[in-house]
From TrEMBL:
Membrane topology: Multi-pass membrane protein
SUPFAM superfamilies per record: TrkA C-terminal domain-like
One example GO MF annotation: monoatomic cation transmembrane transporter activity
Keywords attached to this entry: Membrane, Repeat, Transmembrane, Transmembrane helix, Transport
Gene Ontology biological-process annotations: potassium ion transport
Protein's recorded name: SLC13 family permease
Major location category of this protein: membrane
Gene3D superfamilies noted in UniProt: Regulator of K+ conductance, C-terminal domain
Domain RCK C-terminal: start-end pairs: 205-290, 297-383
Places the protein is found: Membrane
Length: 592
């Protein structure tokens, strides 16, 4: 009993830290593992055994393959078909959500969303009217797509591996399809019929106007011969003025230099195009002797040239920008990139842009050299929302990656190779064929997920060894005492859904799987249906934005608040739970 209380306390503490979100989930998972090891709950020889687990290797391989498919332009090719969907809002809604769901069955949710969000924003200007009406259904569709195949989402891979450890045989790639595809179809139809009323109409980037009123704080400053800063560099000007501002262009007669370098020396008669708030502009004028020369159309005239672009991008859920500011990162000094504006939940954030600490889902308006912007987006884990030429990848190669991917699916489905071997080989083939460069191989593995899985798998074992999983299973059975087995299955499914909305869904699958096995054992029924319930429950975090990366990605572009998700997410969850139980019982009979 002592061990049960200890592992229970560790897991409850980890859940609290997950919800608090002060530290990233992989750090919390590793800390919980080390505490369990120190207390003797995890044997010394098994502390890091999770990192050699087949499920962890498979997840890493699938992430590499997903990035290669995304980089090669496979999803781009599908996305381009959306432009032929017509200009009717309901047709575009069906097309966007369907393609997103289909792609997410085979490619990572975030990779699919990174391609599809700009497509939705572009189409919204011609048909949807408000992108916020379709972005949330697209995010939910990407989660539904993950339920369709074993490789669609990490929880499915984990559940398949746990089944292999328990009965010696894994779930196959398409064993999840009957239940998952049925739920995806039900979920899509529900969203098509109800999203008009359940998804809020927000101030998102769907109309012609951006949420940033750039002309209100981009201003001309004329440099007279008497100005004190004639002959000094832009760097010296920036060092003198401590507040945030950016010189986005310089006019010299009829010549215009966009995004000038920091070593540029200011000349008499120059006109500096400056982005700054009113107080900072006054400080510049007082310190330099420059003169104000306002123009209402400056934003369109001077921000963009053939070499320089202004691009919107969303801060990804695992971006290196999170918790840091432009001043911390010295984006202007290191990369020559100007942060022109920041929007959060569809609303512009104006004061002191240099010191704003970025959050997941923030939308940034960046100006700089086109090639450098591409590198900055890739380096810092952001996704462009405009300029489709900025897709972070190389030339399109459609046939080779599709052939490699199909071969991996076929060999594993026919039992010629195990799933970990088939997909690891496919990831290697993607590198050897230069679909994904070697330098990007490790950059595009979602290492926090890998570390989280490696840390929580031994914790799941400790939950089982201590008897805590059995105790929790008995509690679950008490709730459904004297009721049909379907009630116990429903209780398990509901608890997993709740857990997946507040912690990473992979962790939810790891922690709930031992409880599912014990419930099935106590009832004397097959464990398959209970394991499938955990897989389904872990894949349905629709109620909160923190439930999954896809939900976070649309938060900024859609202009959603934290409380907007449950309006569609809760009814959708209830409908899917009601449908999932009979579907699981139909396709996975509980007779042992």
């Amino acid at each position: 009993m002592n061990d049960q209380l200890l592992i229970g306390g560790i897991l409850i503490g980890a859940l609290v830290l997950f919800v608090w979100d002060r530290w990233r989930y992989d750090l919390v998972g590793m800390f919980a593992l080390l505490v369990a090891a120190a207390l003797g709950l995890v044997p010394a020889q098994e502390v890091f055994s999770g990192f050699g687990n087949a499920a962890v290797i498979t997840v890493a391989a699938v992430l590499v393959i997903s990035h290669a498919m995304w980089r090669s332009g496979v999803v781009d090719a599908l996305a381009s078909l959306m432009k032929r969907a017509g200009d009717k809002a309901w047709v575009q809604m069906i097309a966007l959500t369907s393609v997103t769901t289909f792609c997410s069955a085979f490619i990572s949710n975030t990779g699919t969303m990174a391609i599809m969000i700009p497509v939705a924003l572009q189409l919204s200007r011609s048909g949807i009217g408000h992108a916020s009406r379709v972005l949330m259904p697209m995010a939910f569709g990407s989660l539904l797509g993950g339920t369709i195949t074993m490789i669609g989402t990490p929880p499915n891979i984990i559940i398949a591996d746990i089944r292999h450890e328990t009965i010696g045989e894994s779930f196959g790639i398409f064993d999840f399809t009957p239940v998952g595809l049925s739920l995806a179809a039900i979920g899509l139809v529900f969203m098509w019929l109800t999203s008009k009323w359940l998804v809020p109409k927000t101030k998102s980037r769907d109309a012609a106007n951006s949420p940033y009123d750039m002309s209100s704080y981009i201003t001309e400053l004329w440099v007279p011969e008497s100005a004190g800063f004639v002959g000094q560099t832009l760097y010296e000007l920036e060092s003198k003025i401590k507040e945030n501002f950016a010189v986005v262009a310089i006019k010299q007669g009829k010549s215009v230099t966009t995004a000038p370098p920091r070593y540029y020396r200011i000349k008499a008669e120059d006109v500096l195009i400056v982005e700054a708030d009113t107080d900072t502009l006054q400080q510049i004028i007082d310190a330099t002797g420059f003169e104000l020369n306002a123009d209402e159309e400056l934003a369109e005239r001077f921000l963009v040239s053939d070499e320089v672009q202004v691009v919107e991008g969303v801060v990804g859920p695992d971006s290196r920008l999170i918790g840091r500011s432009a001043a911390d990162l010295r984006l202007r000094h290191r990369f020559g990139v100007n942060v022109l504006a920041v929007a959060r939940q569809g609303q512009p954030v104006k004061p002191n842009l240099a010191n704003i600490r970025f959050k997941p889902g923030d939308v940034l308006l960046l100006q700089g050299d086109a090639e450098i912007l591409t590198d900055v987006f890739r380096r810092f884990g952001c996704f462009p929302l405009a300029q489709r030429s900025m897709r972070i990848g190389g030339e399109k190669k459609l046939f080779t990656p599709l052939a490699i991917f199909a071969a991996a699916i076929l060999t594993s489905a026919l039992g010629l190779l195990s799933v970990p071997v088939a997909f690891t080989a496919a990831a290697g083939a993607m590198v050897l064929s230069n679909i994904i460069p070697l330098r990007e191989l490790y950059e595009n593995v979602d290492w926090p997920i890998v570390v989280l899985l490696g840390a929580t798998i031994p914790l799941g074992g400790a939950l089982e060894r201590s008897g805590a999983a059995h105790t929790l299973a008995e509690w679950g059975l008490l709730i459904s005492n004297d009721a049909p087995v379907a009630v116990a299955l429903t209780v398990l499914l509901v608890v997993t859904v709740v857990l997946s909305n507040i912690v990473n869904n992979a962790a939810a699958a790891v922690l709930m799987a031992p409880i599912a096995l014990n419930m099935a054992s106590s009832l004397g029924v097959s464990a398959d249906g209970f394991l499938m319930a955990v897989a389904v429950g872990a894949a349905l975090p629709f109620i909160t934005p923190i439930g999954h990366q896809s939900n976070i990605l649309v938060m900024g572009p859609g202009g959603y608040a934290f409380g907007d998700y449950w309006k569609l997410g809760l009814p959708l969850t209830i409908v899917l739970i009601a449908a999932a139980v009979p579907l699981i019982l139909w396709f996975w009979p509980l007779a042992a």
